[in-house]
Design a protein that fits this description.
Length: 120
């Protein structure tokens, strides 16, 4: 479980920093902030093993917030691909879509891990 959160959070951090390098806008760092929050949850989960499950649930909440904040980019990209509608901010849309996919993959993997842990 921690491995999943670690990989997703590092990917989000890299995504935010990379797009910040292109756009030089603070909002490009939002995925990095999400990744950093997940890393903080991982740190405290290791520091306080008896609260590990709670921090895992907090990390899931962070992923859900990431999905909720970025899912609109899916519709923007579909509209662009299917109808040829111009994207207002192409870099931002691509970054949001990538962050949404990363958060969604992390969320699905975490839920799958929770289900497997309950079976044991």
């Amino acid at each position: 479980m921690d491995k999943i959160f670690n990989q997703i959070s590092i990917s989000l951090i890299i995504l935010g920093v990379a797009f910040y390098a292109f756009s030089m806008t603070f909002t490009a760092l939002i995925p990095s902030i999400l990744g950093l929050l997940i890393q903080i949850g991982l740190f405290f989960g290791r520091k306080f093993p008896n609260l590990h499950k709670h921090f895992a649930h907090i990390n899931i909440l962070i992923l859900i917030l990431g999905i909720g904040a970025t899912y609109g980019s899916i519709f923007d990209l579909l509209d662009y691909l299917l109808n040829g509608t111009e994207l207002e901010r192409p870099l931002a849309t691509i970054e949001q879509f990538t962050a949404c996919v990363l958060c969604l993959v992390g969320f699905i993997a975490a839920i799958k891990s929770f289900i497997e842990a309950r079976k044991k």
